[in-house]
Amino acid sequence: MVETRLSNLFQKLLPHRLWVQVGFLALWLDPLALRLHQVCGPVFHCYACPLSAFACPIGVIAQFGGLHLFPFLAVGLLVVVGGLVGSLLCGWACPFGLLQDLAAKVPTRKIHLPAWTGHLRYVMLVGTVLLVPYVWGESHPLFVCRVCPAGGLEAAVPNVVTQALTGKPIAWPSPAKLAIVGAFLVTIVFIRRPWCRVLCPLGAIFSLFNKVSALFLRVDRGRCSECQRCRKLCPYDIQPDASPNDLRCIRCLECTRCGPGALNLETVLDRGTGPAVRPSGALL
Amino acid sequence: MMQTDRKRTLGFVCLFAVGVILLAYGGWLHAIDVLVSKEAEKPTVSPEQGLPKPPESVAKSEWAVVKDVTFGGLARDGSGRLKQTYTGEAPAAACPT
User: Fold this and answer.
1) ipTM of the complex
2) Considering the entire predicted model, what is its pTM?
């Protein structure tokens, strides 16, 4: 196994991943009030949030779809970022993911989700982001922004608070939106990253690139003792030794902490050692 | 290099190229015709010809259209043309969703 500078860097950062995510907030929360909404950010953060530097790519794709326009900039950005790092930004930079990671620290018994729930992300993507906007437009109740908990938490709630504090008439969110936000806040305490794993359309897009991205996880079969410790380390019930670049993976890289160091981050510029094989002996 | 590595490298190169092309086209070449709402609602009559002037449309860059959609600043009118939902510099209300 070639231990690259990149894998060494991430090994050093891994214990501080939460702080890396917090650091990225300085980028997404618009500390300089630039409000660069003509640019899409590559993370899930509502553009109606008072503290948003960039536009949400999912919202832009849906809005363009509603207007029957093709969003070259948003799609191009997602293809470039996904092609480079796959879903790495989900695990290391997304503010909505950070919120869920923080909530997961509440000491409750965690519910494990079956693997098939990961497919619902694609239903969400095709349905509420592509089909509904294109066919019925932005006013449809299932338009993605109308059911998005990020919009509810990051935009609707701050706007209601601002209106209340400034004495303006309060524009309350719809009962459906309030229910979605409430359900989300409860769920994130009992399930790790439920939005990311079950419904996030942006994660659904990035995950499609995991198998072909320039940055990827490789299993060194020479070092792997098949102890399956990586499976216990993975917070999202994935089997990294069998499927290191799984579509459900958010590339938090917790699995790379396995004792033998058999799982490592590599790029297309690095060379692996020997053929990659499954535990059964079949080639990967 | 292993077969899977070759496939991965080729896949990445193709995807990256496609992404860059999309970004380049959207960022520098793509322009979208948008009707400014004031002109769209009040077609003026040309005194010389006695014929109503068609509403003026402005070719906006995709960057500007991205910003407009974040606060509901664009919509299709009855004839299917894109129109701005606000006048002047002030945007419409916050994202309508």
Assistant:
1) 0.88
2) 0.89
